[in-house]
Amino acid sequence: MDKKEKEYKKRRELLSAKLIEAREKAGLTQNDVAKTGLISQTELSKIENSDRKVEFLFLVDLAKIYNQPIDFFISEK
Fold first, then answer.
1. What is the secondary structure of 8-67 as a DSSP string?
2. How far apart are CA 7 and CA 58, in angstroms?
3. 6 by DSSP, 3-state: which?
4. Cα 55–15–42 angle (5° rounding)?
5. Does the global pTM surpass 0.85?
6. Cβ(20)–Cβ(28) below 8 Å
7. What is the pLDDT of residues 1-11, one digit of tens each?
8. 66 with 38: CB under 8 angstroms?
9. 73: Cβ contacts below 8 Å, ≥ 6 apart
10. Which positions ≥6 away from 38 have C-beta within 8 Å?
11. For helices 3-25 and 41-48, what crossing angle results, to 10°?
């Protein structure tokens, strides 16, 4: 794995951690999110485990569900 791939992996893992944090702060389970019809629990699990990429528009939808500003997810802090 080259330097660029390592950086991409690190960023994807950070995003996954932030998605979990936001979902838990909202008091939601993966099943609760799945009940919105936006995504299945299985696919959300893949995203939260860094096994699936997240499209930006989907991230916007999750931010709304989790009541978080979009910059919460894209900040590298």
1. HHHHHHHHHHHHHHHHHHTT--HHHHHTTTSS-HHHHHHHHTTSS---HHHHHHHHHHHT
2. 22
3. helix
4. 65
5. yes
6. no
7. 799 999 988 99
8. no
9. 15, 18, 19, 22, 59, 62, 63
10. 58, 61, 62, 65
11. 130
- Phi then psi dihedrals of residue 38, to 5 deg: -70, -40
Task: Return d(Cα 40, Cα 38) in angstroms, integer.
Answer: 7
In tens, the pLDDT along 11-36 reads 999 999 999 999 999 999 999 999 99
Task: Write out the two tokens for 48.
Answer: 């939260």
Nearest to 73 by CA among 13, 31, 3, 33: 13
Residue 32 token pair: 């609760």
